[in-house]
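ok trying this again, last paste got cut off
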Amino acid sequence: MDDRRLRTEDGRPTKRAKLIVSAVATIMSATATALVFFQQYYDEYLRRALYESNYFTDREFVRHAVRLDVHCKHLLMMNVRCFERFVRLLRSTGELQDTIHCNVDEQVAMFLHIVSHNQRNKSIRAFTQRSGSTVFRYFNKVLKTILSLKSEFIKPPTSEIPEVIRINPRFWPYFKDCIGAIDGTHIPAKVRAEYKPRFINQKGYPSQNVLAVCDFDLKFNYILAGWEGSASDSRILGNATSRPSGLPCLPWKFYLGDGGYPLLRSFITPHRGIAYHLNEIRGRRPRTPEELFNHGHSSLRNVVERAFGALKKRFRILNEEPMYPYEKQIDIVLACCCVHNFIRREIADDDLLDGVDLELQAVVPPEEEEHVPYIPLSRADDAREGTRIRKELTTNMIAASRVGRNHYWNTEMDKVLVDALLEQVSEGHKIPSGFKDVAYTAASRAMNSRYGKDMTKEHIKNRVKTLKKKFVAVNTIINTSGFGWDDVNKKIEVTEDVYNACVAVHPEHKKYFAEKHVLIDDFRHIFGEDYATGGWSRDDVAPSQEMQSSAPHIDDLGIDDTPETETIQESPMVGESSRGPGPRTSSPVRDFARNDEGQKGTKRSAAKYMNLMEEFTSTLEKVADAINDLSKEPFDNDELHDAVFGLQGFGEEILDRAYEYLNRNPTEVRAFIKHTVERRERYMWRKMENLAF
């Protein structure tokens, strides 16, 4: 284009040039506007179409999540059954309802996916193909619904003795009044700049200090969230106990806390300046009474650290700075604790805890704080009572753990010992005088492995003697006229008159009538007839017909020992038998060993007795061959498969190993199949402890 048409002679743009510039500017503005509209259209429609091949559409997200347990655990941190129960519970409140575009299952699944993986709104919007407003709205609705059921999910502790304490002699009876553990944890927080200094914790990042109490099933009993990260644990505890509906403190019960809490009547802390954390004590025996107490204290209080570890591992939103207002951050912490309790209630065997335990073992114990928690004067009496309780616990624990002192036994420990003895009986380690030393050693190893004790075979021998004495007394009472046996409740039946007469003569038998003898059948199998019954005793000249029929006889072995010319009666003792004024009874063994000095010789010759012994040996060989042939008989694989895989509470891998182990050891198959389900479960646990599979 000729430049002279666009400029005048003095160089100014002509009217035509101005029109061209205006037109170009208009075109560029229109193009920019079109690009903006196209971007919006792309975000709303085209991008969704592009994502359809890689992301879920409509309700495919929920359908994919609940298809398999592995998918559900990965996306929602719970299995399918647990998710369905959780949705059913939230739906029952009436606050969540299905809509045309999003049902309750999808609403709950979006919430769980956000808190489990710390997903942003934009990611969930693309992942589930829902608008940002939809995701935001239903997240808040589910959060509100969960918090409305907080009293259903988080329940206060009870005064019952926890099972983990009741069955473990390391803790019983010292910690019988303990109902839980208390601790605090820091959750990253995002606050306004002017409030940030009060939220900075000792590690230098803003957080909220959350106080929690949990029981020994890893379920939270109390949660106090929202305190600034700079606040001390003792200050938060004081606030928790002073609230109208705060931390419950039951009479004569206490919680276990670390050194950051004050030592009070309801809160027992460890001895300061003494090795406390499990990583500091693991692998060696405690050296002092205070260290022994700290070891038991730490082993029990460790449950709250495991609970916090599982909580943060399951809900990753608690590990990073959230993008929500601070009030909602507090609600999210409370809601995650509620969901955690629900999962613990529905899923007892949580695989997540394996990773948590490994992480806790690798944690370096923190240095103990130098300052002692402040105790106000108003709680001086509580502090003195707490000091007394801790001192009493320490004294009792060291008194029971000294070398040479007796171990405390309970019913659960007796069951484990009886199972170990039954296994030794099946392996042929039972002898007339009791058990072989290898049996006592194996039983002590099983007890130490199960309970962390230091029992020797002498401890096991003493306990076996005690159990046998108890069995003999109970069995004698049952077989006495006037007494009966309730096989359902495993108790002795007796009328009041007979009971009073018995107790008057034998006051030591009073305890046998009140308790249940649940192991009586196992005792019969272990001890059998290994106790004196007086079956051979007599005070007359000749044994009565009743005595002859009840006393064991060599004929029971299948050997014909009837002499040709005289009747020979067997004595239960080798050698001379007690006799009255009547004629002397004879015994084959006694007559064979009798010398010729001043005594009449027997009509039997030595050769005849040698033939008798050969016949006896031949009979035993036949019995042994029959037993060996019986062990080689094939067994029904289908019956074994049903017996193994019908057990509850074991993983598929463990059951597969058990099935393979039994196939390799056919001698144990028949005993396993004939056992009751309870005995099979004991067998499984015993083999797992011995690392058999």
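PB: full thing came through this time. The radius of gyration is 39 Å.
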